[in-house]
Amino acid sequence: MQKKIYIIHENDEWTIHLTKRLEELNLPYEAWHLDRGRVNLNEAPPEGVFYSRMSASSHTRDHRYAPELTSIVLDWLEFYGRTILNGSSALRFEINKVRQYLFLEKHGIKTPKTVAAVGKMEILRAAESLGVVPFITKHNRAGKGLGVSLFKTTKELESVLESGTYDMPVDGIMLLQEYIKPPQPYIVRAEFIGGKYLYSVRVDTSGGFELCPADACQIGDLFCPVGEDPKDQRKFKIIDNPNKGLIEKYESFLKANGIDVAGVEFITGEDGTVYTYDINTNTNYNSEAEEQAQVFGMLELAKYLVRKLDSLQG
Fold it and tell me: What is the pTM of this model?
């Protein structure tokens, strides 16, 4: 049987950009859409290269248990010694921001001050114990900016929690985090393929918060760089490497934690301190920004996958 590239995912809209590149290169592949399925532990999986693109935001597409199913599939593949990109370690980071922050700090990479809480009263107490204002809330299992809201006081948060209208996290874990105000309204996302730096994209955040005094203002899909709306695509611009030392730390971190493909987001505060706040192991790329810069993430990823497949062919 011919060895293939297997793509593990739950979102056709995001995956088609990769499969088009695989087809352009005439590569054998098969997509495993894991919103549902079964795993026979007594049967060995097929031979090939397995690449996981499972997303923390799968529940927003009615694929609530896709990460859990992917977890057992990856355990199965790893048990049988298959070649996997973004295996079980990467998935644990994708669905758990607390894990991201703890392991980034362990690796000497600074993250924003954060408190995790479960339960409405504990969320309020967490905001008080954070000891800084303004602050933001975000979901522990997130993606697409889920649950990201800005609060100027704990009273604002208390009012929203009491109203019963606030969107609670799918895993129950809310994060309270210091708000990092940048001198200019943008964040930077560094992209990595095969654990190696590809490029950085600057994301315009000028429309991210409506700084109203009482409302919890949602970011929504601002940080998801795959929107097809032209006005949204202008938010993204590929730029020169902004921080070589930080990029080297990221490469070391990814290697140490079994993450092959990722987008790592960071922001610079008014005092010049750089904070890393998100690791996206289901990274996507903005087509307009890539066209302008003439660098193509999915093409480079497809080339990396074929090199891994060729290494199996002997």
Answer: 0.90
Residue type, 283: T
Spatial contact of 39 and 65, defined as CB atoms under 8 Å apart? no
- The neighbouring-strand residues paired with 116 are 175
Q: Check residue 61 and report its DSSP letter.
A: G
Do 168 and 174 contact (CB within 8 A), yes or no?
yes
CATH placement of domain 113-179: 3.30.1490.20
Specify the 3-state DSSP secondary structure of 51: strand
> Any idea where the domains of the chain sit in the sequence?
4-94+297-313, 113-179
Taking the CA atoms of 160, 163, 165 and 171 in sequence, report the sign of the dihedral they define.
positive
Q: What is the pLDDT of residues 221-278, one digit of tens each?
A: 444 444 444 444 468 899 988 799 999 999 999 999 999 999 999 999 999 999 999 9
Fold of 4-94+297-313: Rossmann fold (3.40.50)
- Please report the DSSP string for 121-149 in residue order: HHHHHHHHHH--SSEEEEESS-STTTT-E
Q: Confirm if 266 and 275 have CB atoms less than 8 A apart.
A: yes
Residue at 147: amino acid letter = G
User: Residue 166 — φ and ψ, nearest 5°?
Assistant: -80, 140
Helices (H), 31-137: 66-79, 88-94, 97-106, 120-130
Tell me how far apart the alpha carbons of residues 203 and 119 are, in angstroms, rounded to a whole number: 33
Q: Report which of 19, 100, 17, 21 is spatially closest to residue 56, judged by C-alpha positions.
A: 100
Tokens describing residue 68: 């859990």
Asked if residue 94 lies in contact with residue 132, where contact means CB atoms within 8 angstroms, the answer is no
